[in-house]
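**Backbone shape codes:**
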Amino acid sequence: METFPAFFPLKDRRVVIAGEGDPADAKARLFAGSPADVARIDGEAAFDPQSYAGAHLIFVASFDADFAARAAGAARSAGAPLNVVDHPELSDFHTPAVIDRGQVVAAIGTAGAAPLMASLLRAEIEARIPLGAGAVAALLGEQREALRAAFPDLPQRRAFLRAHLDGPVADAALAGDLARARRLLADAIARGWTAMGRVTFIVAPDHADLISLRAARALNIADIAAADESAEPILTAHLRRDAERVTLSMASARQLADWAGTGRLVAIVGRRPDRTLAVALADLGVAVEVLEAAPAP
């Protein structure tokens, strides 16, 4: 990872855009409808350090290379992150291709190397994110404290949300009926939640890029992963960053059942599934699935 993605809060933040014409207009459109205080400057004002006072983000956008260099020099005095369009050598960060769904924002970047590629990938990903995804996120944000109080254990809270993101609550929010979504979510929280997790055995392929889509998704959402060193490339590529990692020796049937009983999703990655362990888990009432490696081309 050559660049680190980060999201800047925009509420009550000052964003300064220096320049005019299409490049500056494009940057301004990024913030349309946002809670940021957006200031547009041009001409001699762009060369005055005072124009950037109090800025939290700064963009310099101009086809004129001399203007861009002079404005960037003046903007440095504000100490805010600076992006100079088409001049990565003058920039502190690169502007990604953005998918805006309100509370849900996705960004695709290429470290400034191939912006067109980022735009093409955005089009592919954007089609998969529902227009109402931001409404669902906002609803969950409203109920954050209620959720924490009802489910103080993080894995249990995550299991509750995982179950309801695909149910009537999400359906109502996505349809724009937020009143019904709020009511359904409040009722679900009040009823409480007893979650049962799952143990997924993933057969590690000979090459990391042969992992199946279902196996990759299982690692994306796993709370705990048990694997040996040979599976490290697969875990690095697909395991959720905050997932707990344990050794295979820790993954006894009783321990796995205890984890699953609290709603955790466990992934066990190895060259072959442990059939004896799978049977023992089934006898303990734990949901088990086995995902084979994708066939080699």
